[in-house]
Structure formats: C-alpha cells, structure tokens
Specification:
The protein is an alpha/beta fold. The chain is built from nine helices and 15 strands. The protein folds into two domains: 3-92, Alpha-Beta Plaits; 135-291, 3-Layer(aba) Sandwich (Rossmann fold), CATH 3.40.50. The protein has helices at 15-24, 67-75, 95-101, 143-154, 171-178, 191-203, 232-237, 239-245, 262-267; strands spanning 3-11, 29-34, 53-61, 85-90, 106-108, 112-115, 127-130, 161-165, 183-187, 210-213, 223-229, 246-258, 273-275, 279-281, 284-291. Strands 8, 9, 10, 11, 12, 13, 14 and 15 form an eight-stranded mixed sheet that branches. A four-stranded antiparallel sheet has the order 2-3-1-4, covered by helices on one side.
C-alpha cells in the first residue's frame, strides 16, 4: 500500500514528545534522525540520545488527512515559533525485494568472501561465507567486522582453537573455521545470537566444529586466538574475563573501538599483552595483541 510521511523539525528536548504526538494521531511508525546528519557513537547503556535539532518522521497511510494532525501539533506549547514540517509520498514497493537488492557479495583481503544466499558466488574457489543480513548480529558491512575479517584473511589460523567472544552471527568464528581453524567456541549474552551462529555454521558446513555458550555456561579454556568485536566499554570492563581465554603466546583481536578510545582499551590489557600497530577504518579501530609468556 502507498504511504505518506510527515516530518517535523523539533528541538532535542521535545523530540520524544513530538514522536508520541504523531503516534497518538495514528502514525504507523515513528523515526528520528539528525537534521545535520551527525552520528552518535556508543551512547550510554539504556540511554536514548536525540540531536540538538531532530527530524521526527511519522508514517501514515496515503489516504490520511494530515490537516487535523498539523492543527493538533500547532496547538502544542512546544512550537512557540512556526511549525516546520514537510510531507513526502512513498510509492507502493516490494520493500523486501528492494532491501535484498542492496546487498552484494563482499571480499575481505585476498581470498575471503561474504555472500548473501540470493546472489551468485563471484569466486567459487575462494573461501566463501554464506551469510544473509539479519538482526544486526554482524554481516561484514560494518568497518569493525570488516577489519577483523581482513585480518583473518591474512592470518595463519590453521589447526588453532578460536574463541569468538560476543559472537553475534558467528561470522568471525565461521570465517576462522573455513580458513582452517580446528575448532571454535562462540559466546554471547543473547540467546538469539547463539541460535543465529549455530544456523549460520550449519549453512556453511562447520557446525560440528563450533560450540556456542551463554556466559554462565561457557567452559574454562585457553585458545590460541581470541576475537572480541564488541564495544570499548565492555572490552575494558571484561578485560580479566577476555584475557583469561588467551593462552600464553596466543593472539587477541579486539574491535568495536573508536580511535579516541584506543588508549583506555590498551591500558586495560597492557600488563599481559604486547600490542601491534592499530588498524583503522572510517574512524573505527582493530587492535591486535599477543599475550606475554
């Protein structure tokens, strides 16, 4: 069905109230974005952040009369100045098809590819990970995951035991297994991530070499390679837990870190690890370190 969008410009403190008003007037969905297109990285846990000037968009069926809705907004004390808004018509589309068309196979390094199931494999003889975009668990499109995959492509992982800490979709563990790792252990606080990792491992023919656990269930072990693509805050807080997984002389890969956060993350691990030069992509950093003997 066709739709119409009503986008209202609101100051930061009023943005959630304007969103509530749009929903109260029949909006099927409400979204928020910055009028200046400035990103927000890693907001505090449980905190919603709005922008100084926020664009609040309500989605309505195309036949909706917006005049009463605009009249209700103008009555609000939030808009002491003139109400700034615009409307946009959205044609009826096959949104699922359009979404699928945006995803293509991506190569990382020289031999590693991530391929959606509905696309042809560009290089059948390469190392191909069959993985469909899903619930933000990691598909290689974000620089943090890309940095880790590119490192794996150039690393020697054959015969090693690997831990994927915060495994998400399982993409890093699966990549390591396809590149020759002996076995992989994935841990995550989200049960759905463990389900996704297992399903993706089955699709790629490596399920028998991947074991997944919630933190409360994970066994004590040490591995030659540990990967943690999460965020800077948890990397610092969980340094003792993550470090304990790395065998003496083993390697640690950490990502999900902004450039300004590197010193704090390294400080949490410096006592036990020697760091290599950082790798940077689009403001995000991957850290590689070896545990001291």
């Amino acid at each position: 069905m066709p739709w119409i969008q009503l986008t209202v410009s609101a100051p930061e403190k009023h943005a959630p109230l304007v969103g509530d008003m749009l929903q109260g007037n029949g909006a099927m969905a409400v979204t928020y974005r910055d009028a200046q297109d400035n990103p927000i990285f890693e907001p505090p846990l449980g905190e919603l952040i709005y922008w100084q000037e926020t664009l609040v968009t309500g989605l309505f069926p195309a036949e909706t009369d917006l005049k009463p809705i605009l009249a209700n907004l103008r009555k609000s004390s939030y808009f002491k100045d003139e109400l700034q808004y615009k409307t946009d018509a959205l044609e009826d589309k096959d949104w699922e098809r359009e979404w699928m068309d945006n995803f293509h196979p991506i190569r990382f390094g020289q031999r590693l590819w991530v391929c959606p199931s509905w696309r042809d494999i560009p290089e059948p003889d390469a190392v191909n990970i069959m993985l469909d975009p899903g619930m933000a668990f990691g598909t290689g499109t974000h620089p943090t995951t890309a940095l880790c995959l590119e490192w794996l492509d150039s690393a020697e992982v054959a015969g090693k035991t690997v831990v994927d800490f915060g495994c998400g979709s399982g993409i890093l563990a699966i990549a390591a297994l396809l590149l020759g790792a002996k076995q992989a252990i994935g841990t995550d606080i989200d049960q759905q991530a463990l389900i996704a990792s297992t399903a993706n491992a089955e699709r790629n023919g490596v399920a028998e070499r991947l074991a997944v656990y919630l933190p409360s269930q994970q066994p004590e072990l040490q591995a030659e390679l540990v990967m943690a693509n999460i965020l800077a805050g948890p990397l610092q807080e969980l340094a003792p837990v993550i470090s304990a997984f790395v065998a003496p002389g083993g390697e640690l890969i950490m990502s999900g870190i902004l450039e300004r956060q590197v010193p704090a993350v390294q400080a949490a691990y410096n006592k036990e690890f020697d760091f290599s030069p950082v790798r940077v992509s689009e403001g995000w950093v991957m850290l590689h370190a070896k545990r001291k003997h």
